[in-house]
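May I ask for a single protein's sequence together with how it folds?
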Amino acid sequence: MTYGKMTALMASAAFLGAVALPGAAVQAETLRLLTWGSYAPEEVIQKFEEKYPDIDVEVTFSNNEEMIAKLRATGGAGFDLAQPSHDRIYAAQLEYNIYKPMDLSKIDTSIYEEKLLDGVKANTTIDGEVYSVPHQWGTSGLMADKTKAPDFKGWGDLCDPQYKGRTSMRLKRTILLGTAFAMGEDPFAAYADLDKYQAILDKVVDKLIECKDNVKAYWKGGDDLSALMLSGEIVASETWDSTAFRLYSQNPNIVFVPPATGALAWIDTFTLPRKGEADDAAYKWINFVMQPEIVELMSASSGGTSARKGGRDLLPADKKAAVNAAFTDEDIANLQFFANIPPGVEDMEGKALEKIKAATGG
């Protein structure tokens, strides 16, 4: 075979390899998700891949700390869509440059609850660029047995003498923040002045130590708290909303109580890693999973409430009843979003909690 003929055959083979012949398989693009354990149920993945047969979904389950660590290690490579909570994006981006701005024109933002969309945009806007949009949300607040504590409505009520020995709380940062709000402070605003925040923490520590006789037990997990509430040993507690919603299905007298100063809200987001390679597929996933029929499947998997307008009505029936018993539209408008955590704050809060534990045995 002459050199010329061999060159022509090689060129022909290369051309045929580059052209999709009738019936030939097209290589699928891979969408690599870095997300929480319940945000990629198999049924949702199957439906997505049926709609977009040229996209394969690959899932890595993670949490806030691990997401940051994985993306920091690679400079934002290895994944195409991540789902950190809204308060864990700003500082990580400034320090590690692991995300890239979103093109909101590729997302139907009109479907979102305005309060949730605006909250995420406010927390994740850097130099005029928006880095995240919301996916699902939930809150921390209070719960009470309304037959035994009918007037319970604020963080400060955990320390009301009428409930001596009948309340509970978890000694984590949520109770510090809630107590600060109950004392008329805005802890999130004080993040800009750490000396001021330390002064607030000092007052909160004194208050929670003074409150120790009101506390039947300091709960460590949802099972501990559930047992205390269902047995009647306590009548009210600080809680995750999901725990209260679960108990409501067993005893409808036990309801989640958004504090008068506002429930503390977390929002898990959609965020693009800086070196992701499948942006179009990522935007398709975002729009797909925010459709009402997919929201229902997602909320059944996660227990979270969609950031879509009407998300509460797309929850499983048992949780829908609990959420609607707890939240009015006014309560949604009154949410206090967890603020971006600046360097040093977590150490300050940790020391405050250690003082409380040492003084209370918690």
